[in-house]
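Order emerges. For instance:

***
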Amino acid sequence: MIETHAHIYDESFDEDRALIVSRAKELGIQEIWMPNCSSETLKALYASEEQFPDACRPMMGLHPAYVNETYVEELKTAAAELEKREFIMIGEIGLDFYWDLTFVKEQEEAFMTQLEWAKKYNLPICIHSRNSKDNSWNAILRCCELIEEFNWPQLRGIFHCFSGNLEEAQRVIGLNFLLGIGGVATFKNGGIDKWLGEIDLKHLVLETDAPYLAPVPFRGKRNEPSYLQLVVKKLSEIYACSEDIIKAQTTENAKKLINEL
């Protein structure tokens, strides 16, 4: 398995990070992809990569929830990091309308700038797209519109923690993106389990978003990569196939995305 989205560098893992990574490896998780958030997370991001070089692989980007009046400087910092070394993806980037709508314009500008980076380095992107609390601001559809406006046919990536509907999923897939499936698939009122089986497995990758969004029966508690097994179990029920098929196909999808297959 490949864990395509986990903040394993988060301070909530400071006391037992080695144990968490070991537990993931024992379950067959080969890689843990780590999205960056801002300049504040760089030190911890690199420290986790250094501690677990055979497992933890970093991305580089500016998370939309960290876009504020300092976003131009934040983008400069991330751009400088991209000049220094290689990363597997640009991420996580996107739009977050959930907490605050103050910097929507700036979020969109930051997103478009980072799409330029994806083109420059020919890298996939990891998209964070969170709607407003009343769903009147749809981040998934707005990200799709901006991707269409950018109009680079080779643009590809993952809509991380996908929680939209079937129509939105089909639009995302039509733009050459994969759906990142995690704990939400196990939630009683998550909704995606109702239609996910209509989507071919070749369009899915696995993720936890640890330490957030732990799957049932750990919902509300700290999430960790080993809980990916619970997501696999749920997907095997949805698709009426073996867990091995889920693991093999999603791993193949992830490797193809970063041109390692």
